[in-house]
């Protein structure tokens, strides 16, 4: 208990609180600008934290990332541009709500459930870290292969009205993911000797292209047509949250649980958590037909999930020094630099620092509500900017954001190609979200499949031999079987 | 009168051209006059990135100009290494090159070799260890070696991708024991951390990553390190014997990192940078950082660094040919 | 630019076939049945089959409609130029930003697009300068993104 008291003392220091305040503002800006991710913000904080004590250093990272993941929802809802990859799963849904004049309800929901989801992840981190870490440690390539398969299944759930086109979109994404050096043998595929292509197609510029550039292209030829597509102003964002809580509290619980579990797994983070929970929400909804038309239900699940995964990603990082996502990969480096070597002993050697991390997580999520409210209030001005002024500015932010991912013009090339492709796809009724999902999961799927095959010496039985892998495998195959059966039954009586 | 004016005008134009166009040559006398870019071929947060950032921040203080670390990642390091080698050799782009310099060209991924760079200083080298699961029956590296000899092909090891540095470390060790490089199957992984996780999850039997990379799992009691493939023990891990001590085998290798520029860096830049890097290497900040992360410190300036790379390149080529991944 | 599903299907079938054929040239993985060609081949085959279904569906549901349909805006030259200008701006930035630098490229692109889309000159100038400077400060200064310096290299 002494350590807890010490930890409170460490956090409630004016200097630390000031650092957290600055980090929160920084995180909101980074999160709401496409191309600037929570991971990048963390990497940028490293040289700054170098000259800080451990507690403010870690509190700065915790606060920045929590704010960034929430803030990614704001441009998603207002402009259909996900600010961070974690918001991509429900960007279309949020934008549809804004077009229906429900931007307030959407942003209010995003804010409140991001904060609540974040708190759930933190509570799990505090109470169950060692046990969950043991569980996560049992995941080897076999389990990850099935997890990636389950993730791909989401693509079809998300865009069910045109399953064939969703599948084609997914396959395009999966193909693009094979460009570059292959994950098993190290052979360059589809690179034609171009050095940049050897690095593969990074998905953030592709995402910016497919969502934002295609939106700009549609916008410039339709300046008058839509004019101000949305409502005039954003009023009280907290109005209507009460009924949403009452109606969808189960979605919140489910989203947070999924987010926490996915976050605790090394190699799967906030973005995958959001995709899976959104798909699960649609699958089990009483009104799945409303999804995609501006329906709040899936947003509750997904926005809770991506923030709850942030806290639980620290579980394997703290207990075993294994990153739960790309953010904690950087955090581990900071821990080493501060002499807090990750491992079970970190809880014994420096308990006050670990408790300080927990407290800063709680504080950051509480701080999110007033600061997020301010951010939403000020960002509403975007809706009042004339579109002929707004669209070129968005384009320039996209250019710089894509450049920032690869630190070369190659990122802009990816964005341009993806933008044209995304525009053509949407014009012809192909949803772009499955392509993004394929690009995200493609390498994970292939890497784990090849690794598993090498380990099992080419035997497929091995994919079912380990207990967790067996369960995941049977569940995946059962879902696929059910989908095919339903698909056949549905199409047969209605000849097109 | 007219003539004189034209003359003056063209003189002014000429000096303007000299001032703009020929500036790089003239500016060398007072390098650096603008920010310097330090390219890091690996991602933010990793060991190479952290090392590059500390060197850059210390170099910035010495030079009085910003030194910006720029991550150019992907393609097993090809993208970033190419960016360093093909940059303009004006002293404003340098980079941190790593052991992959001596591996990519054997694999046929690039034409660039260590000779495509102007070596400035080698600053770090980390030898691999031999890690097994904590409940593994093999208590010494000798036991493990005997078991491998008795059951070729039964064991599985991991640590990097196929043909990565830790794969070559394993292959070289097996060769030194007189075994075939594929006596232990290599399971490619996305780096040392996932490999250590797979070791704990029971997916592989051996991980040959560096001991600092395995430290968290060693501390957690999930894994055990049996030996290091180095000439000396690591002062941070004094209980782990070298291969030579444990089984009399003379195989040493290391993942190294050094600062270099594109080939043909101006002599002035080289002469000015190397003493500064030495000063950084000896500084308290750098030492503290390297000790905290458990990174091995090695110093080899300019020509010495070049000789080191040449020897390392030959060693890598030999192992890669034996493993069957070298193209030439 | 809306096409009948059959047209898209045929194009995708050609792409899929090219992927599968090219993937067969990849070397095998030493000592393994599955090599780098496995995933591209499987994905290519799946894409081929899905596209073939799309072709059939497109032909069945065509009912005399055209093979391609161009939205009304494509007949208005001003809109066509707007569309092309966005793409051109991106291509131009990719090609010249390294030599010209971020500040100049961004300013020129923003100003051109503003003016073409009907923003009045004084406002366009002010916003182009302000946006460029804000981006340079936030990305280049605060976030340390190495935006190309271009012409700045000549000055200092």
What this model shows, in words?
The complex is a heterotrimer of chains A (496), B (328) and C (156). With 496 residues, chain A is an all-alpha fold. Helix content of chain A is 74%, strand content 1%. Chain A has a two-stranded antiparallel ribbon. The longest helix of chain A is centred in the first third of the chain and has 35 residues, at 103-137. Chain A is globular. The model of chain A is unreliable at 225-229 (pLDDT under 50). Chain B folds into two domains: 35-126 and 254-323, Bordetella uptake gene, domain 1 (D-Maltodextrin-Binding Protein, domain 2, 3-Layer(aba) Sandwich); 129-247, Periplasmic binding protein-like II (D-Maltodextrin-Binding Protein, domain 2, 3-Layer(aba) Sandwich). With 328 residues, chain B is of the alpha/beta class. The model of chain C has no long low-confidence stretch (mean pLDDT 91). Chain C has two domains: 2-69; 73-155. The N and C termini of chain C lie far apart (48 Å). Chain C has 156 residues and is mostly helical. Chains A and C meet through helix 9, helix 11, helix 20, helix 21 and helix 22 of A and strand 1, helix 1, helix 2, helix 3 and helix 4 of C.
Briefly say what this structure is:
The complex is a heterotrimer of chains A (496), B (328) and C (156). Chain A is mainly α and 496 residues long. Chain A has one domain.
């Amino acid at each position: 208990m002494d350590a807890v008291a010490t930890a409170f003392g460490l956090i409630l220091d004016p200097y630390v609180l000031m650092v957290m305040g600055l980090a929160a503002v920084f995180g909101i800006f980074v999160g709401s600008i496409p191309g600037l991710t929570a991971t990048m913000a963390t990497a940028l904080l490293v040289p700054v934290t170098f000259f800080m004590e451990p507690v403010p250093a870690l509190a700065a990272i915790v606060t920045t990332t929590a704010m960034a993941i929430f803030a990614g929802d704001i441009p998603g809802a207002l402009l259909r541009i996900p600010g961070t990859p974690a918001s991509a799963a429900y960007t279309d849904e949020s934008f549809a709500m804004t077009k229906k004049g429900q931007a307030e309800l959407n942003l209010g929901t995003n804010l409140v459930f991001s904060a609540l989801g974040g708190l759930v992840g933190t509570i799990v981190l505090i109470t169950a870290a060692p046990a969950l870490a043991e569980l996560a440690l049992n995941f080897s390539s076999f389990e990850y292969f099935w997890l990636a398969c389950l993730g791909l299944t989401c693509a079809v759930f998300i865009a069910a009205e045109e399953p064939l086109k969703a599948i084609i979109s997914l396959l395009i994404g999966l193909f693009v993911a094979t460009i570059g050096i292959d994950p098993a043998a190290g052979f360059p595929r589809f690179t034609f000797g171009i050095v940049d292509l050897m690095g593969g197609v990074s998905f953030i510029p592709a995402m910016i292209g497919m969502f934002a550039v295609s939106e700009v292209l549609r916008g410039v030829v339709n300046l008058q047509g839509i004019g101000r597509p949305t409502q005039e102003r954003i009023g009280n964002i907290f109005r209507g949250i009460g009924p949403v809580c009452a109606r969808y509290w189960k979605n919140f619980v489910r989203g947070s649980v999924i987010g926490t579990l996915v976050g605790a797994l090394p190699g799967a983070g906030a973005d995958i958590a959001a995709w899976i929970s959104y798909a699960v929400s649609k699958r089990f909804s009483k009104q799945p037909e409303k999804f995609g038309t501006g329906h709040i239900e899936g947003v509750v699940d997904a926005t809770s999930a991506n923030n709850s995964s942030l806290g639980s990603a620290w579980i394997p990082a703290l207990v075993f020094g294994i990153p739960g996502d790309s953010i904690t990969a950087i955090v581990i480096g900071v821990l080493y630099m501060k002499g807090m070597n990750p491992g079970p002993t970190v809880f014994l050697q420096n308990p006050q620092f670990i408790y300080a991390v927990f407290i800063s997580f709680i504080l950051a999520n509480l701080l999110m509500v007033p600061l997020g409210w301010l951010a939403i209030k000020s960002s509403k001005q975007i809706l009042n900017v004339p579109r002929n002024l707004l669209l070129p500015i968005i384009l320039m932010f996209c250019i710089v954001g894509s450049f920032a991912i690869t630190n070369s013009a190659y990122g802009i090339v990816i964005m341009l190609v993806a933008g044209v492709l995304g525009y053509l796809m949407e014009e012809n009724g192909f949803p772009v979200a499955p392509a993004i999902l394929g690009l995200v999961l493609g390498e994970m799927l292939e890497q784990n499949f090849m690794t598993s095959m090498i380990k099992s010496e080419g035997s497929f039985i091995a994919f079912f031999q380990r207990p967790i892998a067996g369960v995941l495998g049977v569940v995946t195959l059962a879902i696929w079987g059910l989908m095919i059966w339903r698909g056949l039954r549905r199409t047969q009586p209605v000849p097109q | 009168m007219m003539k004189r004016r034209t003359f003056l005008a063209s003189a002014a134009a000429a000096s303007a051209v000299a001032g703009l166009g020929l500036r790089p040559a003239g500016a060398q006398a007072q390098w650096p006059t603008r920010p310097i870019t330090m390219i890091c071929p690996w991602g933010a947060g990793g060991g190479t990135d952290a090392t590059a950032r500390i060197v850059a921040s210390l170099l910035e203080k010495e030079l009085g100009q910003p030194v910006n670390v720029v991550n150019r990642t992907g393609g097993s390091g090809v993208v970033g290494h190419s960016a360093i080698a093909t940059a303009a050799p004006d002293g404003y782009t340098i980079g941190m090159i790593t052991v992959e310099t001596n591996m990519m060209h054997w694999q046929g991924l690039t034409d660039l070799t260590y000779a495509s760079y102007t070596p400035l200083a080698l600053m770090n080298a980390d030898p691999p260890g031999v890690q097994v699961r904590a409940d593994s029956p093999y208590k010494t590296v000798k036991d493990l070696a005997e078991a491998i000899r008795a059951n070729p092909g039964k064991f599985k090891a991991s640590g990097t991708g196929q043909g990565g540095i830790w794969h070559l470390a394993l292959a070289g060790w097996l060769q030194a024991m007189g075994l075939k490089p594929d006596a232990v199957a290599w399971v490619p992984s996305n780096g040392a951390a996932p490999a250590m996780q797979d070791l704990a999850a029971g997916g592989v039997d051996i991980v040959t990553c560096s001991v600092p990379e395995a430290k968290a799992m060693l501390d957690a009691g999930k894994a055990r390190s049996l030996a290091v493939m180095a000439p000396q023990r690591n002062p941070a891990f004094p209980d782990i014997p070298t291969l030579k001590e444990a089984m009399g085998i003379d195989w040493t290798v290391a993942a190294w990192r050094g600062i270099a520029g594109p080939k043909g860096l101006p002599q002035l830049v080289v002469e000015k940078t190397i003493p500064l890097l030495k000063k950084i290497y000896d500084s308290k900040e750098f030492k503290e950082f390297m000790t905290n992360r458990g990174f091995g410190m090695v110093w080899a300036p300019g020509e010495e660094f070049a000789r080191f790379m040449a020897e390392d390149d030959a060693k890598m080529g030999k192992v890669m040919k034996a493993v069957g991944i070298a193209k030439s | 630019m809306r096409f009948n599903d059959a047209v898209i299907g045929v194009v995708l079938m050609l792409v899929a076939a090219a992927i599968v054929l090219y993937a067969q040239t990849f070397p095998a993985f030493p000592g393994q049945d599955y090599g780098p060609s496995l995933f591209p081949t499987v994905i290519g085959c799946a894409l081929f089959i899905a596209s073939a279904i799309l072709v059939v569906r497109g032909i069945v549901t065509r009912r005399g409609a055209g093979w391609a349909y161009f939205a009304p805006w494509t007949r208005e030259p001003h809109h066509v130029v707007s569309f092309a200008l966005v793409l051109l701006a991106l291509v131009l930035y990719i090609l010249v930003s390294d030599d010209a630098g971020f500040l100049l490229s961004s300013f020129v692109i923003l100003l051109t697009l503003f003016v073409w889309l009907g923003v009045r000159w004084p406002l366009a100038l002010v916003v182009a300068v302000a946006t460029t400077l804000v981006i340079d400060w936030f990305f280049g200064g605060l976030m340390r993104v190495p935006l190309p310096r271009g012409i700045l290299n000549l000055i200092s």
